[in-house]
Amino acid sequence: MTPARYPEHPAPEPYSQFDPQEYLEEYYAQLSEENVFLLDFYHEIYGRLPAGLSVLELGGGPTIYQLLSASRCAREIVFTDFLEVNRREIQRWLEGAPGVFDWGQYIQRVAGLEKDLDVDALAARLRACIQRVGPCDLTRKNPLDPDVQTGFDVVSSAFCLEAVTQDPEDFIGFLRRISALLKPGGSLVAVLVRDSDAYKVGRHFFPACPLNEATLAAALQGNGYRHVRIQTVETSRLHGYTGIMAVVAEKE
Question: Is pTM beyond 0.85 here?
């Protein structure tokens, strides 16, 4: 597999250079075809899960769209990210701070999918579900350290698992650590970029682990997951990848 490369691709940079506002404007300012694909995926997945779930958002970045449908069946959502700037952005949204990124078009889309649920009610539902915002680090044996909570019904991860390393062996280690956080039979719900070794945010590039549908499925099936289902939407190569893969898998 040859990773997609942006023209004159520089070396990936450390996440100390990551700007959440730049990321949000570049990827989420418009409800693009790719973003509609993601919202529809989450709506379909969480529409099949029972109510009363404990959900861990692992490496959620500065975004909340991936949890709109999750709040339909979650009794609690624990939101985590490695970067303090991203956790601060989530806190600002929870508090309704002035100038916070406007997720209105995403909320409206999901409210429509739920048969014209009131937009304000959906936003309030998600705010009520997110009971804690804290740090995570996938390079640690316990990614939630010092928190020791395990036994989650769902671990959700949006563009994080493949964005910490370029090494496939590291990626496999991440899958095992996530499995330890899930209860038996629990679900991993994740979205990842395809065929990339780095993705673009503004003038910066950050690392990505080269994956495609076959290598992702093999990694999951070989490391304690079953019933793997992957959906893909094609994208341009301008951001350093060829598509977005949306996957749901069950812990054995």
Answer: yes
